[in-house]
Amino acid sequence: MGCHDTIKLIYRRSDHLDLLTSVIRDENPQMFILNKGSHVEQDEVYEAGWNKSINALEEHERHLEELGLPCLFLFRTTVPGHPQCASYTEPVNNITQMEAVIADKSSYSMEMLQYRWWCFKAQNEIMENLVTASRLKNYHIMDAYDINILRPDKHRPPDCLHNCFPGKTEVYHQLMLHFLKLSMVQI
């Protein structure tokens, strides 16, 4: 607890958002930052998981409204890695070019093919469409995809997915603060 026992910050990692209902039940949080991470699934499984999560969030939002409590849900898009990342020493200012690199399966090592980074753009669109069509009122979508696809540089070797600190991932903190201020949520 901090801030005169008014703020509680918890962290739960869940690659498939399967902890969401227990976090809601046990912690009753007023703010969520949601992302499934770079764990590709079949589109049908991915969509079903998000539908289940969004339904739980809609119910939780109604519950918080009944209690007169504010809430905010931030959905972060998923970021692909960059095949052959060691060959990049600076950002690239062309999304089309970087999407072509990510879509080109011949640019991947055999080990990296399993991650199916070329699926992330379409799966982000699935998530964004589901959130936009939902009954949620207090949400924002943090577009990490467009920010990071242009940054094939500064990956932590050897996986070409994770990043070095400090670096481009610090932008997420700025985005989160922006959305908090924009929403004027007093959590």
Summarize it.
The chain has 6 helices and 3 strands.
Q: Can you tell me about this structure?
A:
The structure is a single chain. With 187 residues, the protein is mainly α. The protein has a single domain, classed as Rossmann fold. Helix content is 40%, strand content 7%. The protein contains six helices and three strands, in the order αβαβααβαα. The chain has helices at 20-27, 43-66, 95-103, 120-133, 144-149, 170-183; strands at residues 31-34, 72-76, 139-142. The chain has a three-stranded parallel beta sheet, covered by helices on one side. Strand 1 (31-34), helix 2 (43-66) and strand 2 form a beta-alpha-beta unit. Helix 2 (43-66) runs parallel beside helix 4. The two termini are 12 Å apart. The model has no long low-confidence stretch (mean pLDDT 88).
